[in-house]
Structure formats: structure tokens, C-alpha cells
Write the C-alpha cells for this entry.
Amino acid sequence: MKKCCQCKIDLPLDSFQKNRTAPDGLQYRCRACTKKASKTCREKRGHLWLQKTNPWDKRPENAGRKNARTRARQAKRKAETPDKVREERRRWELKAKYGLSPELKQALVEAQGNVCAICYSPIDAVSCATDHNHAQNYVRGMLCKPCNSALGLFKDSPEVLRRAAEYLEASKKIEQEPTTETFIEALDILEKVNVRRQESVTLSKPSSA
């Protein structure tokens, strides 16, 4: 049993809410007195009580302002043409990712003769890819999307690209001249590639102290 500090009645312990800061771990007032005091406080404070307990968007004074800026932004976007929205998005992405403007990208494409810097296929400033170094974060040139994807798949490694070129040259010789000498020459090239690969693996292994 415990006596409520407000109604002065001895009540069972389950009539009190928990309070970790109290010596016995229970509230000083019983549940009924706590509920009555809360109701009285709400009636006295009214709007101020709601302002304290309700989230920002549920308060009466903020009902008309809820998401007002979002609605205004959406209305403005609907009024604009889709082409203008896409152009703004493209301008923002170029500036954020590469520090370029659409005009500067157009100038770079024209400086390359409107062709990809690798395969020389025709490109335009809107659909071409902006190739950049991920480590130092600088623009290297304008590429078509297949070439830009290929560099990423080859991990921007010149050594890997050279080995790929040697592999294709060896296989091309076998296709064009399927003779014994061609096979031997192709095997020699592949052997050189494997030797370089083994050397790179050995260098990459940590030396045992």
C-alpha cells in the first residue's frame, strides 16, 4: 500500500504510475489524481497545451501553413514547360558533378570535332557522356556512352586495356590466318601477357618481414 500525496488515501501499488527517479520507483500521486490534474491543466491552458503536446503540423496556427512552400514549388513546376525543367536539371547535374555549364560542355564537344575521343563516333553535347577521373575529380573529355561505360568496366586501367588489345589482336590473327605459325605467335603473345600478370600479382603481395 502507498498513500497518495494529493488525495491522502492509502491505495494499492498498481494505482500509481512508474517513476524511476522516485525512491520506490512509483509516482507520488495516484493515477486518478494525475488524470484529474492533467484535465484541469488542459482546461486552463487550452491552446497553449495543444501547442506543447502536438507536432508542428497539427497545431491550429500552422494548419494553413502546412506544406505551403511545397505546394507553391509544385505549382510553379507544373506551370513551367517540361523542356525547361529538364534543362534546369541538366544544368544542375553538370555543375554539381563536373563543375561545367551546358555552354562549356558544348564548347568541349566542338573542340573534339563533335566526335567521341576514343571511337570517333558522332556525339552531341546533350546525349554524350562526360568522362572524368574519379580519383582526382577532373574532366578528361567527351565520350559516347558505350566508350564511357567500357572505361568504367576496365577500371580506368591502361594496363588492362593494353592486355585487352593484345588479346583481340592475337585472336584476330588466328581468325585471318589459321596457320601453325599464327598459332605459335598468338601463344607467344598470350605467354607474355601471363608473365606480366604473374609479375603484377607478385608485386601486389605484401612482403613477409
